[in-house]
Amino acid sequence: MRLAGRMTPFFIPIFLLGLSSLVNAANFTQVFEWNNEKNYNTTKASLEAEIFNPRRIMPFFMAAYGPRLFFSMFRVLSTPVTLVSLHTSSASSASPKFTPFPSLNIHGQGDCDKLGEASGLQVDSVGRLWVLDQGSFRCSSKIWTIDLKNNDQTKLTHRFSFQNLIHDFVLDETPNGTFAYITEMGAQHIVVFSLERNESWIVDTPGKSLLTIALSPKVEPRKLYLSEYESSRLYSISIAALRNGSRTANPELIGNWTAEPYRMLMDNQGTLYAAFWGKNYISSWNSSQPFAEHRFYEVAGLNTDYPFSFNLDQSGAFWMAVFDDKSNILTVLLE
Length: 335
Description:
It is a single chain. The protein is mostly beta strands. It is built from one helix and 25 strands. The protein has one helix at residues 240-243; strands spanning 11-17, 30-35, 59-65, 68-73, 83-87, 99-100, 118-123, 128-133, 142-147, 153-159, 166-174, 177-184, 189-194, 199-204, 210-215, 223-228, 233-238, 252-256, 261-266, 271-276, 281-286, 294-298, 308-312, 318-322, 329-333. It starts with 10 loop residues before the first strand and ends with a strand.
């Protein structure tokens, strides 16, 4: 697993951009700003068993739903919880605090019945936040679902047969059920999970070690887009066979990015976005056209291993977080 060489996030702007304005990224406006310290909305006494340094709080994946943002945090020794929320109604407050989500007592590294290390995040069409939990060396990886419309009721939805190194996922909601397609860091396969059957299985991708994943819009036939681990190559797979239980898939090469992606996302118009290890820009590609990479957003002087995180909310608006080591500011922006 490639680890961030600099684990202290010093500048983290978080943006919201309407997708109709993506050509003009200058339409970002500030929503939040943290100066010097990021902190949790809980007492230090409740975290006394943890090594706690609020300057080392570093978001990795994010999701947005209604008036709330959700972040998974890198697990380092000073990180007491790895899933937090932030209410957008507090946008006028200086340095608002992250709230352990859904509650502090659901978190527990090493306790296999608790949330150990949150990774990828997605919200489905009925308002459930899906959370990948990497687990630990003694606890299996898991999927949690949290009902955001029903008092954040939390369910440990599925335990996998493996541990650690799950990275990201997408949700495929069909008339016949909901599927999650999951990547493990550097594995030559995809993990498929069926919610209705509560079953998961491996789909081999021979010779292709995968990392990032994105899903085409809700127009059949749908495709998965996948990047290769420690490679700039971009592939696609038809998901029809995956839904039917196929155990092998042969990704088709689409093209090559300019760098190695660690996060991808496709919007409802079929534009694919990618953020890259250690690069100061996000690129895009209109999938209705032959592969051609375009610069979507760039931050001059940015020097961070995981510079960007982004996701869509239920209206299709684009949220983005930016990380920089050089200053000690965390900012949230909104179009």
